[in-house]
C-alpha cells in the first residue's frame, strides 16, 4: 500500500436528524485515482465539503499525511496541499483566462502586487501560468475574458486555477457537469495528464465512461455510509452494489 494522503476516521455530519455522512472511514492513497460513486443525495459532496474544511464534522476526524486537520480552515488545508475546485464561483468573469490562473498562483505564493517589482519572480509566475493554461488546453484562449469562454472552457479554467495552487491531492466534484458531451474526452485527457504529472485525484463522477477510463479504485457511498471500496471491476460486479445502488443497470458500461 502506498502513502496515505487523506484518512478519515468515523467521519460524520448530521443536518438535524439526517445523517448525511455517517461514520465514514477512508484511506486515500497517493497516486491512486479514486472515484466516489453513489446515488443522488448519498452524501458525496458533503464528504468533500468535510474533507476540504467547508463543513465541520459532528463526529470523527480527518488527517492529511498523518496530521489531524479536522479543525483547520479550508485555506490552511489548501496550503498543506489539499486542492479542491469550488465550482465556477471562483472564476472572475471580467478577467482573462490568463489573469484568473495567475491570480490563483499568486494567492498560493502568498504574494501581492509587490511581485511586479521582482522581475525574476514575475517571469517565473508568467511561465508557470502559460504552462498551466497549456495543461488545461486553454492556451489559445488565454486573452479571452472568462465570461467569453464556453461553459466547458470555464470548467477547464476552474481546474487550471486549482492546479495553479499546486495541490498534492485534488478533490474534483463532477468536473464535466454541464459540459457538452463532445468536450468530455478533453477533460478525461487533462485528468490523465494531471495524474501522470503526480497529482493524486479524488473524483466524484456519474459519467461511467469517464469513471471506467480514469479510476484505479472505486468507493461506493450509499445513505451517507461507505458500502464498499476496491478495484473498479470487482466493485462494479459486487451483488450488494448492484442491489443497493445500481438496480437500474447503471454500471453496465463499466462491465462491458
Ligand atoms: N447544508 C445542508 N443542510 C441540510 N442538508 C444538507 C446540506 N448539505 C447537504 N444536505 C443533505 O445531505 C444529503 C447529501 O447531500 P450531498 O449533496 O452530499 O449528496 P451527493 O451524493 O453529492 O448527491 P448528488 O450526486 O446529487 O450531488 C442530501 O440529503 C442533502 O439534502
UniProtKB/TrEMBL annotation:
Keyword 4Fe-4S carried by entry: no
Signal sequence residues: none
Keyword vocabulary terms for this entry: ATP-binding, Nucleotide-binding, Transport
Classification via PROSITE patterns: ABC_TRANSPORTER_1, ABC_TRANSPORTER_2
Keyword Nucleotide-binding (UniProt): yes
UniProt cross-references to InterPro entries, sorted A to Z: AAA+_ATPase (IPR003593), ABC_AA/LPS_Transport (IPR051120), ABC_transporter-like_ATP-bd (IPR003439), ABC_transporter-like_CS (IPR017871), BCA_ABC_TP_C (IPR032823), P-loop_NTPase (IPR027417)
ABC transporter domain mapped to chain residues: 6-248
The species this protein was found in: Proteiniborus ethanoligenes
SUPFAM superfamilies with a match to the protein in the record: P-loop containing nucleoside triphosphate hydrolases (SSF52540)
Domain of life (superkingdom): Bacteria
Name listed for the protein in its UniProt record: Amino acid/amide ABC transporter ATP-binding protein 1, HAAT family
CDD domains in alphabetical order: ABC_Mj1267_LivG_branched (cd03219)
GO function term, MF aspect, one: ATP hydrolysis activity
PANTHER family: ABC TRANSPORTER ATP-BINDING PROTEIN (PTHR45772:SF3), CONSERVED COMPONENT OF ABC TRANSPORTER FOR NATURAL AMINO ACIDS-RELATED (PTHR45772)
A GO CC annotation given for this chain: plasma membrane
